[in-house]
């Protein structure tokens, strides 16, 4: 029999309750300086008592991939400290733990990559458990932004989707800024990320199926996919490596971000992508231990698949997210070039 959930469990360990599939009886209850609301498995909302003077509508998502555990632990600690009254929060916040069943099994995904399913792309994958979950996450995020109460001033919409990467990286922490049709990159946000220890930002130049693109394109949120370290199992994470982002989020929950726009992280743009064409013929011509942002000179052949070849066309291109194990038709790597000041 599944054990019942009670609000005081938040002060102990919300993550354990989620992983153990504990039932949830309370739907809304009072906390220190505001109210909590349970929306469904892995979805928890906080509203401060003074909604009229809140400084942000903030979505914090984690666990979109079930093997990326450190950001889940970071969010769990934020919930614990907020519930216990150890952390002040004047923002309205939606916590989303993306793929609970994959987290329980320490699998990246069950059927399909969840972070390729958003902005309606889940409709192309009937029967996929990730497609069902993506649709639910979209509904929760949409309701959060659309039902935002009136405020005494303009309230920014923010979404930080927290991840860790399969491979190591030349930059310990980096961000992906989704494509924006208005081409307006928020330098204040990028400077805030730099103060949180983010070394580089990759500026995307076309739509994508990521969760951060969904919130950015549909609701105008300043949204980022944040790669904060390396994939590890629960209990193996050195959370001191995440202290910059953890402290930055704690400060942001309590007060608006600093309005300064310098210094900025190093910025990159997408130069091309490697797409796997077939099941049997695809080859990625780089070692398994190559790190994200490793540079290759012009003329290097990085991938072949039958008649398909990816050849470096700029003086130098850096590879991000190389993965030879993706399904045919999916991206097996991004190539980026640095934007010089």
Automatic annotation (TrEMBL):
Keywords: Arginine metabolism, Hydrolase, Metal-binding, Zinc
EC number: 3.5.1.96
Cofactor(s) the protein requires to work: Zn(2+)
Superkingdom of origin: Bacteria
Residues that span the membrane, as ranges: none
GO biological process, one term: L-arginine catabolic process to succinate
GO molecular function, one term: hydrolase activity, acting on ester bonds
Positions annotated to bind Zn(2+): 65, 68, 163
Pfam family for this entry, one: AstE_AspA_hybrid
Pathway field: Amino-acid degradation; L-arginine degradation via AST pathway; L-glutamate and succinate from L-arginine: step 5/5
Function as written in the Swiss-Prot or TrEMBL entry: Transforms N(2)-succinylglutamate into succinate and glutamate.
Official protein name in the record: Succinylglutamate desuccinylase
Organism, as annotated: Leeia aquatica
Lineage: Bacteria, Pseudomonadati, Pseudomonadota, Betaproteobacteria, Neisseriales
Gene this chain is encoded by: astE
